[in-house]
Amino acid sequence: EPEVTQTPSHQVTQMGQEVILRCVPISNHLYFYWYRQILGQKVEFLVSFYNNEISEKSEIFDDQFSVERPDGSNFTLKIRSTKLEDSAMYFCASSGGTGVNSPLHFGNGTRLTVT
Amino acid sequence: AQSVAQPEDQVNVAEGNPLTVKCTYSVSGNPYLFWYVQYPNRGLQFLLKYITGDNLVKGSYGFEAEFNKSQTSFHLKKPSALVSDSALYFCAVRDGGGTASKLTFGTGTRLQVTL
Q: A98 and B106: CB-CB below 8 Å?
């Protein structure tokens, strides 16, 4: 069964540094998402993306965050200047359609640790 | 705004006994409801969904969920729990409108199944 893949599985960075989290969505999916989960807590929506533009973003997704689909397969989340509170698991997801019949398929996540 | 509530942080059940994980929802329109499971250090796996039709929805790994409109609930159930069912379970609601509609998750319920 096709799956969403995320790299790296764990990223450690110093406060103020830029990080890029990478995702390869399922190949025929058109809708892409980033979520984050602070250790053991709620899964929070960050951003959705379709047709090379952001569809919706949460208040968490401020100017320090950006997303990009640089080619036909990758979907990236960039944090320009990381803060300690950015430490979390970041999950990428993709969906075959916006229709409510289409569940989101999640990757295994990237654990970001900001020191 | 849509939301889901999971009133129990943890549910403990003995293997072989039935299990219920509770979820209530709040939406302005039709409810589109999902259950996901998260195993340690993994992403969220889709279990089942309710879009329309029968109130009892069957999903993966023997799980089912009962939609109750009058009680605005969507409880997850399984007739006979297994130790391997121990995981974190998330209820979610999807916005039916807009492009790349997002999932909004509850806070999660940890299910612990013991021998």
A: no
Q: Cβ B98–A100 below 8 Å, yes or no?
A: no
At residue A46, the 3 state secondary structure works out as strand
B86: left (phi over 0), alpha (psi -120 to 50) or beta: beta
Q: What is the pLDDT of residue B101?
A: 79
Residue B5 has phi, psi (to 5 degrees) of: -125, 135
Higher per-residue confidence, B48 vs B100:
B48
Neighbours of B103 (CB within 10 A): 26
Count CB atoms within 10 A of the CB of residue A63.
7
Q: Give me the residue label for tokens 């979820």.
A: B23
Token pair, residue B56, equals 């009892």
Nearest residue, CB atoms, A100 vs list B90, B94, B108: B94
What is the DSSP secondary structure assignment for residue A21, as one 8-state letter?
E
pLDDT confidence of residue A115: 97
Rounded Cα distance between B90 and B103, Å, is 11
Q: In a 3-state reduction of DSSP, which class is residue A16?
A: coil
Which of B100, B106, B108 is the closest to A98 by Cβ?
Answer: B100
Extended strands (E) in chain B: 3-5, 10-14, 19-21, 24-26, 33-38, 44-50, 56-58, 64-68, 73-78, 87-94, 103-105, 109-114
Q: Residues B76, B35: contact at Cβ < 8 Å?
A: yes
Write down the pLDDT at residue A42. Answer: 87
